[in-house]
Amino acid sequence: MLIQVRTKDSLTTLLKHGCTGDWIIGKHKTPHIKRIRVVAFSGTTMFEADVLSVKPHPTLPGRFIVCFNNPSHVSPCNVEFTSRNPVTYPLWA
């Protein structure tokens, strides 16, 4: 399963940390998430990576941190968001 998240965080910084967090994800979906697409809030840049783990946030109940590896480089894109929810589960492209 692919998870797509929309973030105001710097994509370059997220690449350095290897994690992005504070996401509300259905607990039943967490074991199935294998790839992550992280899209800048503007929808104009993104990267994808393999998911290493999806773990509960230590201080925010119901939220998760997604750790990743083998990321692509930040690349231009044109992703349109049809809802206010920053977490979506698009079909594999």
Short description:
This protein has 93 residues and is mainly beta. The chain has one helix and seven strands, in the order βαββββββ.
How many domains, as an integer?
Answer: 1
Q: Radius of gyration over alpha carbons?
A: 12 Å
Secondary-structure element string: EHEEEEEE
CATH architecture heading: Roll
Shape designation:
globular
| Termini separation | 11 Å
Supply the CATH class. Mainly Beta
Helix content: under 10%
CATH topology group: Archaeosine Trna-guanine Transglycosylase, Chain: A, domain 4
Structure write-up:
The chain contains 1 helix and 7 strands. Strands 1, 2, 3, 4, 5, 6 and 7 form a 7-stranded mixed sheet that branches. The protein has one helix at residues 11-17; strands spanning 2-7, 19-23, 35-40, 45-56, 64-69, 75-76, 87-88. The chain is 8% helix and 42% strand. The mean pLDDT is 94. It has a single domain, classed as Roll (Archaeosine Trna-guanine Transglycosylase, Chain: A, domain 4), CATH 2.30.130. The protein has 93 residues and is mainly beta.
Strand and helix layout:
Layout: E1 2-7, H1 11-17, E2 19-23, E3 35-40, E4 45-56, E5 64-69, E6 75-76, E7 87-88
Parallel strand pairs: 1-3
Antiparallel strand pairs: 1-7, 2-5, 3-4, 4-5, 4-6
Properties at a glance:
93 residues; mainly beta; Archaeosine Trna-guanine Transglycosylase, Chain: A, domain 4; 7-stranded mixed sheet; globular
